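retry 2 of 3: previous attempt timed out while embedding nicotinamide-adenine-dinucleotide. Reduced batch size to 1 and resubmitted. Inputs unchanged:
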Amino acid sequence: MTSKIIDTDFLKKDPVFGQLSFDSHEQIVFCNDKDTGLKAIISIHNTVLGPALGGTRMWSYQSEWHALNDVLRLSRGMTYKSAITGLNLGGGKAVIIGDAKTQKNDKLMRRFGEFVNSLSGKYITAEDVGMETRDMDVIREVTPFVTGISEHKGGSGNPSPVTAYGVYMGMKAAAKYKFGSENLAGKKILVQGVGHVGETLVKYITEEGAQVIINDINESRLEELSKKYNTNVVLGNDIYNLDLDIYAPCALGATINDKSIHQLNTKVIAGAANNQLADEVKHGKMLKEKGIAYAPDFLINAGGIINVYGELKGYSKEESLKKTENIYNTTLEIFKYSDKENLTPHSAALNMAQNRIDNYKKERNS
Ligand code: NAD
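retry 2 succeeded.
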């Protein structure tokens, strides 16, 4: 009889922390409910500054590993987004594994809400991809730890217009840094992705007199918006070598990658999409070397989190917009700090956010 050799290499590795995108995450909660078919993961990255607030994404992930990796990455991003924005919030996020179009129902939402409730406010949820204001209203039936509920129910509603306003502020700050003036009139700007955020951004910048080009995979949307606003349309994926002043990624993440970075012919990048840099260190450095001013995504797209944060203390749209306007000052500050310390703007923003967390912790413990 031959003995079977068992590969025990995996036993030498730590099975959890140190795998995938784990980065000092505080707590991961796996939510499983046979009756509703709910499979969700809540990731709490950091709660030094306050409760971990971040949206829930419903997505048909390729595998559970992909879902776990995504929620780890997204929740870490929320920690830094809230910290750099000056909010007293930690970073968290949740993912529900499934197709939002075919598998979402109120029972599933309520069951998910019960899991959120079981964390007693350490995690507060909101909308993300695949979720809508109505879903937040359903979750609210079983837990108070949810934001982004309907305006008629005392909530802040759809955060996208406020997100777009923040992106607009960040874009103007990047223009001020790069061109010496925040005025966007005459600037050639490509907006990639004209969904909820992209459309409002197009409205702001066309009103200011920018020469706007729009791109989307949804051609009917392009047709509709090109009629509504004064814009040109570019179809297809062949957009990265367009001669531009500003490129605004407002569709997907990782559009700044090994391939596109060599084609990019722009002076500024400022958009809403999360995780625009495929590799935040490598591609951040390459952009700096090319002389492209990159406004960190997690800083300039923080309008949405500012908006839902307002709900925790009694919502006022004016107050949210006022706070969001400050993204202009913070973005300029980041560019100056990155030059002074010879850092990429992305690293500079991460440093500043981490410093705020560390100082808060020191003060609290002293
Ligand atoms: P959305 O789904 O409403 O719009 C995205 C648009 O991008 C759609 O019109 C879609 O057709 C288009 N698109 C998808 N793939 C594309 C491709 N390959 N090329 C060109 N267009 C493509 O989403 P949204 O709410 O407008 O958010 C846009 C981005 O901003 C997302 O990355 C989101 O994560 C990020 N973001 C949004 C908010 C918010 O408040 N909505 C807050 C922070 C960050």
